[in-house]
Amino acid sequence: MKEIISSPLLLTLVAIGLLYIVGFSLVYLKKAYSRCLEMGISKEDLKKVIKSSLVFSLVPSLSIVVGLFALVSVLGVVWSWWRLSVIGSLSYETLISSSVSSALGFATNAEMLESATGRQFGVVMILMSIGMLSGFFILIPFGKKLSLSVNKNENASTWKYVLSGTFMLCLFAVYIPVLLFGDTIQAAVMLTGLVIAVLLGVLASRIPKLKWISDFIMAFSMIGGMISSILWTNLFQ
Q1: How many angstroms separate the CA atoms of 136 and 100, rounded?
Q2: 147 falls in which pLDDT band (50, 70, 90)?
């Protein structure tokens, strides 16, 4: 496994994939920019939109960078970089790697990193890739219809709110039991991050001068949770 995650071949394939994503984004940025000019939107307004979009994109990415450092110790730099740069999420990748390491007979992710074979790591890579694609396979036939039905009859239909709430409840039902009952330290870290997120949310909503914090809540809660893990490890081990 260590040979694969640090191999030049994997690094080359990941670099090609990331360059494709960047190129794809630039092509559609140019198309959107040209279309806006055709519709009569001024270049000054477009520059303002681009600047605000950059800030809106860069700030939440801080939490992804924090997640990258956490995932590197499990999957190595290259594969973690790929998963969190394109379509993956820290919670999904961590859950899959933990489930696979347990199914393969390893006590921890660290043990899997040290002892897993290339074939076993291939199982991890396939599950992470194929499992995440299931959402796209659903969106291909139903995505447009769902999007249009959500946008029309906004006042007459309430099913979209039910659907959104159900989706979030499903996420909670999948991830929270794993975090709370899997390991004492893991549960303490999650609760610490939750408390930090709630406190920051209250401060941002009640104090106008601290409204900017709302853009950093996820990053701050993740950093605070990771720092607290040192304390909880010393207490419980």
Answers
A1: 23
A2: confident
Alpha helical stretches, state H, the chain = 2-5, 8-38, 43-58, 61-75, 77-86, 90-103, 109-115, 118-151, 159-182, 184-206, 217-236
**Nearest-angstrom CA–CA distance, 145 and 22:** 28
pLDDT of residue 30: 92
Mutual angle of helices 61-75 and 43-58, in 10-degree steps: 40
CB under 8 Å to 216, separation ≥6 — which residues?
59, 62, 200
Distances (CA, A) of 45 to 37, 41, 50, 54: 10, 7, 9, 14
Distance CA 223, CA 196 (A): 10
Q: Hey, is 155 helix, strand or coil? A: coil
CA distance linking residue 225 with residue 186, whole number of Å: 10
Residue reference for tokens 């949310």:
201
| Whether pTM exceeds 0.70 | no
C-alpha dihedral sign at 119, 123, 125, 129? positive
Amino acid at 173: A
DSSP letter for 105, please. T
CA distance linking residue 159 with residue 149, whole number of Å: 10
